Amino acid sequence: MGSYLSGDTSADQGGEDVQGDSLELWAFYLPQTAVGALVLMFYFGLPVLRRRRERGAPKWRDNPLLIGLTVALLASATTTAFIVSVVPVAVIVGLVSLVLVARLGYRNIPANRVGVVRRRYGSTHPEFRNVTPYKTRGVQARILLPGRSEWLFPALNEVRFAPRTYVAQDKIGLVTAKEGRNRPATRSLGRSVECDNFQDAQAFLLDGGEQGKQVDILPPGHWYYINPELFKVEAVPRVYVPPGTIGLVDAKAGMFRPPDRAFGPHVECGDFQEGSRFLAGGGQQGRQMAILQGGAYYNINPALFDVTTVETLRSKGRGELTLPHLEEISIPVGYTGVVITLDGAAPESPDQLGPRVPGHQGFRLPWVFLRNGGQRGVQEETLGEGTVSALNPYFVRVVLIPTRLLVLEWNDKSPAESRNYDAQLGKIAVTVQGHRLFVDMSQTLQIPPESAPRLVSKNGGSETSGLGGLDRDPLPVQRFVERVLGAIVVSYFNEIAAAATVKEFLEAYAETRTDLASQVRTALLAWGVEARNTTLGEFRAEDPSLNEALKRPAHEQMRGELLAAELANVEREDAIDAVRVRAESRRMSMELRTRIEVLGLNNVVVLEMLKETSKAPVPQFIGGGDLSAYLETQPVSRLKELLGRMRELHEESAVEGASPPSLPPDPREAFGNERP
C-alpha cells in the first residue's frame, strides 16, 4: 500500500514535472513568437502602409486587420503569462497593450485641415444613412478641428484629413447640402438653420436642415471649418454696382405675386443680403421695388436673387432695358424733373396731378409712396435742378422741362433743329389783299417749376406704361409751343390781315407788335408761364415788285433824313464861320487900335494905302504921257473903302490929337494932275 502510494506519488510528480516543462516552454516561446511577429509586421508592413497613405489610403492604425492581429498577439501573450503564473510578465504585457491601444486612438489634426470621421461598424441610422449626427455607422457630422487631440477607438473609426474652406474677399460661398431632410416642392432653397455658418453640421442636421442649395451663404474673406462630406461650397463673385449706376433685383424664390401687382411687397432684408429674412417676411417672386445703390459690393445669393447691373446688361442684355435706365437720374441746371409714377392708386381723372405724399424721400422709397396713398401718373412734386437720385426705372419716369429763359423763333428750320423746342414754328405767312407777306418773330419765355407738371400732363409724355428712367424728349414743350404760342400768333395775324389793306397793315406795325405781345402774355399766363419779350421782324412780300414799292417810302424817308442832316450840317458850318469872322474882326480891331495908338491915325492910313497899293497889279505898258492911264488901273474903290473903315475906327477909338483923314473927291488929286 505504501509502495503503491509511493509509486503513485512518484508518478504524479513525474506528470507534474512534464506539465511544468510544457508550460515553461509555452511561457518562453509564445512571447518571443509574438514579439517576432510584431517585429516582422512593422518591418514589412510599414513601407506598404506608407505607400498606401501616400495614395490617400487610411493610416495603418485605421486598418482593422493589423489592429486585430496586434491585439490578438498581445492577448495571447498575456494569457500565456497568466497560465504559467508569470504574473509580472502578464502585467507588463497588459500595460503595453493598453498603452499601445491608447496611443493608437489619439488623433492630432494638422493646421489648415479638418478631420472627417467615418465609423466603420455599428447600426445605420434610418434617417441619416450617409452623414449622421449620431454615433452610428457612417460619416460623422462632427469634424475634428486642428490644434486639438481627440481619442477615437482604433479600427472602429477612420479619420481623413480635408482642407479648410476659404472664401476670397471678392466672392461669397454658395452652399449645397448633400444630406438632410427633403425640401418641399414649393421651395427651391433649403431653409435657414442656425449652424454657425455651416460649421456645426450636427446642429444643421438635428434642427431640420434640408438638402440642396441653401438660402444662407458664406460671407467673404474668412476661413471656415466645414465638413466636405455634408456641404459643397462653390465660390461665386459678389455683386458689384459701379458708382453712378443702380442695380435692379428680381427674386427667383418666394411667394407668388398677384398678377395685378407690378412689384412684390417690400421686405427689409439688408439690401437683399439676408435671404432668410426676405423669405420669412413674405417676399414675393419677380421685380422688387428696392434697388441697389452704386459704388458698393453686395453679398447676395445668386440662387435667390437675379441682379441686373450695367456689367450684366452689357454681357447678357435684358429686353427693352438699356444702359441709361441703370444710370442715376441727374437734373441739370436750368431744368426741373417732372415725375411720372408708373404704379400707385388710380387718379380720379386722367389729367389730375398726383398730390404730394410725405416720407418717400424724393421717390427713393416707392413702398412708402404707395403705403401713404400715392397715385399713379404725373406728380405735383418735382425734382429740382442739381438733384441726383437713384430711382427705380420700373417705378418712375422723369421728364426734363427747361426752367431757364427760352428764345423761340418763327423762321425756317433745318433738319438738325428737329429737337429744338421751337422746331414746329415756321416762318409766319400772312395774306393781305392777295399779297403774301412773311415776317420773322421771336418770343422769350420762362417755365416756372411749379407749372411744369401741368404742361407735361396736357401735352404728352405722361404715359404710365413701359419703362421709366430719365426722359429727355422735348416733345411736351414742343407741343405746348405749337398748340399755344403757334396757334395764337397765326390766329392773330390772320384776323388783322382780313380787315386791313397792305398799307394799313404795314403802317400799324408798332400797334401790331404791342397788341400781339399782350395776347401772348395773356395766353402764357393761363398756363403759369412767364412771357418776357416779344420781337417782330420786318415784313417781306413774296412779290419782288411789292417789296420794291414797300422799300420806296423807306428810301424817301431815309433820303429826307439825309438831306435834313446835310442842311443841319451847312447851318452849323455857317454859324461856325460867323463866329470865326467875329473873332478875326476882334483880333484885327485890337491890332489896328494898337498901331494907331503907336503911329497915329494918318500914318497908319498912309501905310495901309501903300500896302494895298503895292498889292495892286502894275501894267506892263501904259499908253500916253500922263498918269491918268496909270490911275485908272489902281483900286480907287479899295482905297475909298479902306479910308472909310479908318474913319469909323477913329471915331470909335476917339484917339486924342488925331483928325480923321480926308479923301479927295477925285483919286487923281492924291497924286496931282501933272504928267511926269
Widest sheet: strand ordering: 3-4-2-6
Helix-residue proportion: 25-40%
Estimate what percentage of residues fall within beta strands. 15-25%
Radius of gyration: 62 Å
How many helices? The count is: 15
User: In angstroms, what separates the terminal alpha carbons?
Assistant: 242 Å
Category by helix and strand content: alpha+beta
Q: In one word, what is the shape? A: elongated
Rounded mean pLDDT score: 80
Uncertain residue segments: 1-16, 54-58, 655-676
User: How would you sum up the major sheet?
Assistant: 4 strands, mixed
The total strand number stands at 28
Explain how this protein is built.
By secondary structure, the chain is α+β, with helices and mostly antiparallel strands. It is built from 15 helices and 28 strands. The strands form ten sheets. It has a four-stranded mixed β-sheet, with no helix packed on it. Strands 19-18-21-26 form a four-stranded mixed β-sheet, with helices on one face. The longest helix has about 55 residues, at about 545-600. It is elongated and about 190 Å long. Mean pLDDT is about 80; it is low at about 1-15, about 55-60 and about 655-675.
